[in-house]
Amino acid sequence: MTKILIIDDNKSVLNFLNVFLLQSGKYEIKTLQNSTQAYQILDKEEHDILLLDMDMPKVTGIDILNYIKQKELKIKTIVLTGVEDIDLAISAMKLETFDYMLKPIDEEKLLDALENAVSKINYNNPVTDLSFKTLKNNEVFKNIITQNDEMLKIFHFVEKFANTDNSILIWGESGTGKELIAEAIHKISNRRDKKFIAVNAGLFAQELFASEFFGYEKGAFTGATKTKKGFIEEANGGTLFLDEIGELDMPIQVKLLRVLQEEEFYKLGSTKNIKANVRIIAATNKNLFDEINKGNFRKDLFFRLNINAINLPPLREKQEDIPLLAEYFLKKFNKKYNKNIKTISTPLINCLKTYSFPGNVRELMNIINSSIIVETTNELKRKSLPNYFLENMQFCCEFEDGVLPPSLQKIEMEHIIKVLNFTGNNKSKAANILGISRVNLIAKIKKYEII
C-alpha cells in the first residue's frame, strides 16, 4: 500500500485529506500539523508521496523541499497551497516538485495526481515492489537498477550463496554488471567488514599478473626494489574478485588452483608459504566449456571455481529495464554535467528498445552520457544520440515516434483473436469469416498460443 505523508498547519485540511484518502482504500496516511518535526519524520520513516502545504510558520514548504533535495530523499512531492503565487510555484518546481495544486483541493484532480505519482514510483523504484521486499538484504542491491523477474531470482541466489565461503563463478557478457553482483555477495557475507578487491585479469600481461597476484620479495627480479603484497594478501580475510578469468594463462591457472585447494601461496622470490584466507569470486564472458575443450582452461580449476554459479542475462533479454536504466543515467549525468534535462522522449526510448546492445548496460550508460552532453533542451531527444547508434538504428528512426510497425504475424494473431471474440469462440464461423479451413485456424491458434 502506498504510504502518504501530509504536512499542513491547518487541522481541518489534515482531517479532510485523511478521511478522503483513507476511503479510497489505496493509501496508508500519516498527518503532521507541526512542520518543525518534518525533518525528523522524513529521516526516520519511509513514505512514497508527500502532500505539502507551502505557507507554514517556522519551517515552510520551501524549507522542506530544500531538505528533500539536499538529502536526495526518494519521495514524490505534491504541493498544496492556498496562494496563487507564480514565483512560489516556480521555486517549488525547481526543487523537483512532482505536482502543484491550489486550494481548495479538487478531489478528482488530487486522485489523478496521486495515481500519476504512484505510477512513477513503481517505474523508478522497482525494489519497492512487494516481490523485491522478500529479499533480506534490499539495501545491498540498490545500485543494481532492474525490474526484471530473472534478476530478482538471481538476487535470491546471491543471498543464499553469500552465506557460505564457497567460490562463485559469475557468467555474463561484458557490461552485464558482474562486478556489482560480486560486491553484493561480499556485502552480505561474513567477510563484509574486510576488503573487497576487484581485479581484471585481462588487463595484465601474464608475467606482470603473477607478481601482482602473489606479490614478490625484494630482489625477486630486476626492478623489485622492495617487498610487495599481492592481491591475495591484500584481500586477506575478505573477497578477491577476478574478472575475465578465462584470460589467464595455464601457469597462472595452476597457481590459482593451489590457492583454492591448499589455501596457501608463495610470493615470487620466496620459499615460504603464506596462508590464504580469502574468498575467490571469478567472472567470465567466455564459454569456459569451449575453452576447456580447446585446452585453454583447466577442468579442475573450473570445477573449483564453479561450486556456485550465477548467470547474468544480457540487456536485450531485459527490455523492461531499458527505460528504467535510461532514467537512472539521465539523473546521474545531469548531476555530473550540471544539466537540467527533465525527460527522455518516447521516440528515443522506443529506438533504444529495438537495439540489441552488444555492450549491454555499460553501452546504454555511454549512449545516455554522450547524448546528455550535446542536448541543449530540457528533453533528451533522438537527434542527440551518438552517430554510430543512429546509423545502426536508421530503420527504426525512419518511423514516426520511433515505433516499428507490427509484424505480419502479430497482425494476423490480433485479427484472429478479434474474429474469435466476434463469433463467441465458434471456430467454424471464425474460419469461414477468415477464409481459411477450420483445421488451418486450429493450427494458427496453437501456433500463436491463443487461449
Structure description:
Strand 4 (76-81), helix 4 (86-94) and strand 5 (99-102) form a beta-alpha-beta unit. This protein has helices at 11-23, 38-44, 61-71, 86-94, 107-124, 149-162, 178-188, 206-214, 231-234, 250-262, 288-293, 299-305, 321-337, 346-353, 360-374, 387-392, 394-397, 408-422, 427-434, 438-447; strands spanning 2-7, 27-32, 49-53, 76-81, 99-102, 168-171, 196-200, 215-216, 228-229, 239-243, 264-266, 273-275, 279-284, 308-311, 343-344, 379-380. 28% of the residues are buried. The strands form five sheets. A five-stranded parallel β-sheet has the order 2-1-3-4-5, sandwiched between helices. Mean pLDDT is 85; it is low at 122-130. Helix 6 crosses helix 7 (178-188) and helix 13 crosses helix 15 (360-374). It has 20 helices and 16 strands. With 451 residues, it is α/β, with parallel strands linked by helices. The chain has four domains: 2-125, Rossmann fold (3-Layer(aba) Sandwich), CATH 3.40.50.2300; 154-311, P-loop containing nucleotide triphosphate hydrolases (Rossmann fold, 3-Layer(aba) Sandwich), CATH 3.40.50.300; 316-402, Helicase, Ruva Protein, domain 3; 408-447, Arc Repressor Mutant, subunit A, CATH 1.10.10. It is globular and about 85 Å long.
